[in-house]
Write a structure and sequence with these properties.
It contains 23 helices and two strands. The chain is mainly α. The radius of gyration is 25 Å and the shape is globular.
């Protein structure tokens, strides 16, 4: 016990239980300041002057269309992601053993930045110079036309590309649930005469219901908060969603933070409700600790359709948009015609010679790594409180809500909140790397906490109790027992957070300054200026940086790091 001295010379001991409680309380106060305060300040501003922000935003003539587009984007992309993610997870479970490496392919689109993927498809499907459109116009059905037949700047195509981007996240949840399905169930259904389709609908889908509900909820939240696709592709035809409305309100002169806060309110409310519903449905998460052996691993198959499904998805989600980026990056200008005489590396030389671009890469990597280094121990402490802190029920409930909020609230809202909070006293951090690191920590806190909490739940209490019985202190137990056992999960969390942060675009666009840029914000500036070959080269550079980070994680943590996401 710790001993404190009073003014009268007397001393008293602080019980270890109270030391832990005070430590967790201080940590929650800091996290609450980072996570909750920006939201409170935004909503307070929206209600000032008789809710002027709400009147300014929701009396606009086009607000109904904006809300309708937001809902259509969320629901449409959700359907696409759920269908494709579930199909890919089932296909991965039916792959023959010699092709087991293909199971990682549906995860790889996460490595490619969303902004790079969107830009790649724009170069291919732009109605005029898009390369795929040029090829399609050579077919008899569309010959003689000088534009189309596909227009990537319309709402349906924004929904399709967003759904493709969310598919990998659904695949992660569903494939994890698929691994817990006993092979005996599948074999029994097949012996009873069920076809592959029958097994999928009668056995697999019912058993996957928890994973589908959880993954669907996450995909719906991500769909509602989509920013990259609507911002980059929607400008041509004035396509607006609530997140782009927030950005427009803040970036216009003068900035209208009250209207921006009001625009994001429906997303905040829906995110909070969904998080609370999720907590109520899951209840005590220790109920989901399972113990199984090899018999619980799904058996592979020899289905040709499974291999083809994953290969086709790889072509659409990875290969084709990368081809579009490569072609444009090797040409002096973007046009529908392509000739070998035009190919050049000048765009990459320009990137290497531009100090601003080099600095943006260094800023992206350094701020991402700093946020990850801070987030991992924070997530570990929060996970420990949630899993082991039964004696701190109130603190555990607060920790659960604080760590879940950033997952339910779009990043652009945190960007606006941080911009408002840290451009005024007591902390004026606008334009510094510090504010970027802080917003990154907030955005990654749910991933750091949930992934480590899942690992702790799967390990159970056996190892920690055995260590305590042997006389080890909690610190020694965590350092010498729990951390080594959780190393694969921690490295996977590091890889995932680094991927997401080097891709981060929405929040960074709001808290950056002209002297403090990350790769995504600089790419956006190039896109706005019409420097399309440099945009393509920059997108490839972003993909290369992320791939290098994942490669390092795989060298340290093994080839299965991505599989453990």
């Amino acid at each position: 016990m710790a001993t404190l001295s009073t003014a009268a010379g007397r001393s008293f001991a602080v019980p270890a239980r109270w030391r832990s409680r005070l430590g967790y309380l201080a940590l929650l106060a800091v996290l609450g300041y980072l996570v909750v305060l920006p939201m409170i300040r935004l909503q307070s501003l929206a209600f000032e002057d008789g809710a002027r922000g709400y009147r300014a935003q929701y009396t606009r003539f086009d607000i109904g269309e904006t809300i309708q587009t937001t809902i259509a984007l969320a629901l449409g992309s959700l359907v696409i992601a759920m269908v494709l993610g579930t199909l890919l997870a089932f296909a991965a479970s039916r792959l023959p053993d010699r092709l087991g490496f293909l199971r990682i392919i549906p995860i790889l689109p996460i490595v490619m930045p969303a902004v790079a993927n969107i830009v790649g498809w724009a170069f291919l499907l732009s109605p005029g110079p898009g390369y795929l459109n040029v090829l399609l116009r050579k077919l008899p059905w569309w010959s003689g036309s000088d534009s189309g037949p596909i227009d990537v700047y319309t709402v349906p195509w924004i929904i399709i590309l967003t759904g493709f981007g969310l598919t990998s996240f659904v695949y992660l949840f569903v494939s994890a649930g698929m691994q817990n399905i006993s092979a005996e169930h599948l074999e029994a259904a097949q012996i009873s005469g069920s076809s592959t389709v029958g097994v999928f609908f009668r056995v697999v889908l019912p058993l996957l219901r928890p994973s589908l509900i959880y993954g669907g909820g996450i995909a719906l939240l991500l769909g509602l908060g989509q920013f990259t696709g609507p911002l980059l592709l929607g400008q041509n035809y004035g396509v607006k969603v609530l997140t782009t409305e927030m950005y427009r309100r803040v970036s216009e002169s003068p900035s209208d933070f009250a209207a921006a806060a009001a625009a994001g309110s429906p997303l905040v409310i829906f995110g909070l409700v969904l998080v609370l519903i999720q907590k109520g449905l899951l209840g005590n998460q220790s109920r989901f600790v399972t113990h199984g052996g090899k018999s619980f691993a799904p058996a592979g198959g020899r289905s040709l359709w499974a291999t083809l499904t994953i290969v086709v998805y790889a072509l659409l989600a990875l290969v084709i948009p990368l081809i579009g980026l490569v072609i444009v990056s090797l040409t002096p200008y973007w046009s529908g015609s392509l000739s070998g005489d035009l190919l050049t590396l000048d765009n990459f030389r320009t990137l290497a010679a531009d100090n601003a671009i080099v600095e943006s890469v260094l800023t992206s990597v350094s701020t991402s790594l700093a946020a990850v280094v801070i987030c991992v121990p924070l997530g570990y402490l929060m996970a420990t409180l949630l899993v082991r802190g039964r004696q701190f029920k109130v603190l555990a409930l607060l920790a659960d809500l604080v760590t879940a909020l950033p997952l339910g609230i779009p990043a652009v809202i945190f960007g606006v909140g941080f911009l408002l909070t840290y451009t005024e006293p007591p902390l004026i951090l606008y334009g510094t790397k510090t504010v970027i690191i802080l917003v990154y920590i907030v955005l990654m806190l749910p991933y750091a906490t949930r992934m480590q909490m899942t690992a702790m739940l799967s390990l159970g209490n056996t190892y920690s109790e055995a260590s305590a019985t042997s006389g080890a202190s909690p610190l020694v137990t965590n350092l010498r027992v729990m951390l080594p056992l959780m190393r694969p999960t921690i490295l996977s969390a590091v890889a995932l957070m680094f991927i997401l942060l080097t891709h981060e675009f929405a929040a960074s666009l709001l808290v950056r300054a002209s002297t403090t840029q990350v790769m995504g914000t600089l790419l956006f500036d190039l896109w706005q200026n019409g420097s399309y070959p440099l945009v393509a080269a920059m997108a490839l550079l972003m993909t290369a940086v992320t791939t290098a980070g994942v490669a390092v994680a795989m060298l340290v943590g093994g080839r299965n790091v991505l599989n453990k996401l």
